Amino acid sequence: MHENMQLIESKRSLSDPKSVCLYFIVKDSGIGITEQSLADLFESFTQADSSTTRKFGGTGLGLTISKRLCQSMGGDITVKSTQGVGSEFIASIKVKLNNQALIDDTPNLTFTDAFEVLIVDDNEDDLKVIENQLTAMGLACTACQSAKQAIDIIEHNKEKFKVIIVDWAMPSMSSETFLIRIFNINPQLYANTIVLIMSDESLLNNGAKKVSIKTILQKPVYTSVLYEAIESKVVGSLNEVPVVNAVSEKSLAGIKILVVEDNSINKLIVTNILENADAQIYLVDNGLECIQAVKSQSYDIILMDIHMPIMDGVEASKIIRNDSDKAIANIPIIALTANVMKDDITRYLSIGMNAHVAKPIKAQKLRETIILCLSK
């Protein structure tokens, strides 16, 4: 999988002060496109690779349709590409400004007590995004594009940073080596490390587990998820620890939890959350394996993904609820899914699931929901 980045920027129209132009920028570090192919890229039924053995499918109409849609909205799509390096597509549309005042119903994601965060990422665009998120939270941040630069800064400012956010896939120095160096300089900062990953391939040989990293987030990171991750690192030193946290951690100790999830990153995130609470975690990849697992041994609760190959979470839940063995039929099931529409949640509950936790998963919400289901 090739690294990619999506950005949204806006610029006010000089010719029409009541309009703005929105730019959607998509960059990747993939195979790139030849100059010859670029010239025909937006033509109908044309592809950069038209061979019968091409790796990437499609009809050759997507970009043509997208370009015409953008042009119909006063914008366009342009592309720059270097073969073997990557491509950058910029889609733009012109929109009218709304004269009505907007109501800001977003939660308050700012820290009352400011502190400083160190960000380490070789991707300049990723650095910019994370830096903007942290600034909006009221935090000061220092950005580095190399592990060596970060180590130099930490060695000269050992107590300056409360949290460090580091990209897992960096050149020059492996993240494992980098984090071991951080541990030797400042063990507390090491404990407050948040690792960012782009894909499964970033977790080569489960390296993050080798250095005992507890907080791993997948890019692109939602602001609310990043806020919660940072808060969990510093809450003990800046705020009073909520009572529910202590209860949640203690109450999950020894609980046998079956996690049914095909995505390895989601597995890792859930495992990190629950292992911190001393729960016993068992992992399977799909609904069929889940059915086989519950028949071979007992579990206290099931965390069920919805969209999976072979057998999805809905079908697996129906089979469990109809099992002749009451111990199996009555196992609490929590749906873990990005489907958050009211109709979706109602459907999951109607087939016998006990609760729903939205992805991206928030640690506190997951722990509280598990405890609630087990207490019924």
From TrEMBL:
- Does this entry carry the keyword Hydrolase? no
Q: Which InterPro entries match?
A: CheY-like_superfamily, HATPase_C_sf, HATPase_dom, His_kinase_dom, Sig_transdc_His_kin-like_C, Sig_transdc_resp-reg_receiver
**Its Gene Ontology molecular function terms?**
transferase activity, transferring phosphorus-containing groups
**Which Pfam families has this protein been placed in?**
HATPase_c, Response_reg
Q: Name one GO biological process term.
A: phosphorelay signal transduction system
Provide the alphabetized UniProt keywords. Answer: Phosphoprotein, Two-component regulatory system
Q: Where is the Histidine kinase domain?
A: 22-97
The segment(s) forming the Response regulatory domain are 116-234, 256-374
Record carries keyword Electron transport: no
Q: Which PANTHER family does the UniProt entry name for this protein? A: HYBRID SIGNAL TRANSDUCTION HISTIDINE KINASE J
Identification of the protein by name: Histidine kinase
Q: Which organism is it from?
A: marine sediment metagenome
